[in-house]
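Hi F.,

I've been meaning to write this up properly since the lab meeting, where we talked about keeping a consistent format for the predictions we share between groups. The idea is simple: the sequence comes first, exactly as it goes in, then the structure tokens exactly as they come out, then a line or two of notes. No screenshots and no reformatting. I'm using this chain as the first example so we have something concrete to point to.
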Amino acid sequence: MMNSNSPSATNSETNAVANSKGGFPVMLQSIAALGRSLQFKLSALVIVLLFSVSGVYLVSVMNASERYVAEAVQRLNRPLADSIAKVMQIDTLTGEVDAGRMKQVFDGAMVINPSIELYLVSLEGRVVAHAAPPDKMRRTAIALEPVTRFLGKTSALPVFGDDPRSLDAQKIFSAALLPNRDGSPYGYLYIILSGEDYTRAVAATREGFVFAVLVRTLIVSLFAAVIIGLFVIYFLTGDLRELTLFVRSIQGGDFSRRLAVSSKGDLAELAAAFNDMSGKVETSIAKLTSTDALRRELIANVSHDLRTPLASIEGYLETILMKENFLNESEREHYLQIILKNTRSLSRLVAALFELSKLEANQITVHAEAFSITELVQDILSGFRVQADGHGAVLTSRFDTDLPFVYGDISLIERVIRNLVDNAIRYGGHSGSGEGCNVLVLVSRPDDRHLRISVSDSGSGISEAELPYLFDRFYRSDTVRVKGRGGSGLGLTIAKKITELHGSDLTVRSREHQGTAFSFDLPVHIEAAL
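Output, unedited:
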């Protein structure tokens, strides 16, 4: 059990107190973070949209119910004006409707149906007579365009017209044309239908079974849509939450994590892009780490390779200066020869480093041209005869017949072949025996598009464990160290870089006590030109 006086226990108590004191601000921060989340915003948007659509739908249903009642009432009362107009007679002497007769008809119709209002309207739309109290009238004329549409039956019901008792209200009506005795039009009988009975019918429709079912269906559908919408949003934003955690892990430096891509779509493509990006970043970091390790190794190797000849030069120069009067000519020349040898070794090392840096920085341009690889090999071997004799090595060459020209940079290819031949002469001998080796340069044609150049020796070979490191900077095998022969360890690295510039690869095959063979391919001139 943890001691309550321990630092951990103290910290726990402190955190608990802090959480109890800052619980409300923390809760507010959590609520604010939730408000900023995409899931919350989408959920709020869906809820607002659903309630807005439901409200619009409810208003539309209410308006539709009112229009339905209006259509039903107007359709049922369409013949009403015609039936009343038949009992209204126009005086043949005055050409007017008898006022007493008209009042009797109006009063009788309104007694039968108190919800209607009757008006006599001229052909110009002026209200000629009515049964309404004078103080209730607000219009002296009505628009005839709705009346014309109603009588012509060119418009779907309901048709709304002006209400003489209101300046802005539009109500359903029934209308009929009043003809003179000679058949000419006299005016219109205009009957407003939307009275108290109409209002009660609208209210009854809204309180009826069908409207109630529609409202209940709307409410159930609304809540079902909200629940389903929130569930779908939660499901869809789950990938985003996973993506957020993934990005945060990258932000924390964990580039090994990958997102599981099991679907298709924009989020799947985004997840795949993030996986690809994370992989590339991880690879880049690994390369940077490797490059940094190589840089450190390079500095260490260069420091070692520079320190040895510099120390030798410094020591022999101090010897010459200190014993200037005691050295004879042969000793002085011997010391100077050693200094010259170390100086040349330094020059070769610096030149190799400079060349390698240019190759790795892609600062060397390949000046490709067609040339004869057989002539180049023969010239190189001629230059190595003296060196080969000094090491007891035998140089031979073998070429396939009818070899075409190759296409490449002749100076760079010469550099590669010289390096391989030089290595074969110096390091290809039999270890410990003092014997030289047989060095063979073979030019063959593996296919119609390439020539293959191979440089092999019959020496002691290279162990299988050393082969993967053979092209690393400053790497020298145990065979080289045992023989104590010079070399910067950069020659094969430079040769491999040059072959890569030509679209090829320098490969090596070697078995202990059976020799080593290096080979690379060059394109045939005709194929390269195509």
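Notes:
The chain has four domains: 1-34, 78-192, 266-360, 369-529.
Residues 1-24, 26-35, 480-486 have pLDDT under 50 and may be disordered.

If this format works for you, I'll send the rest the same way.

G.
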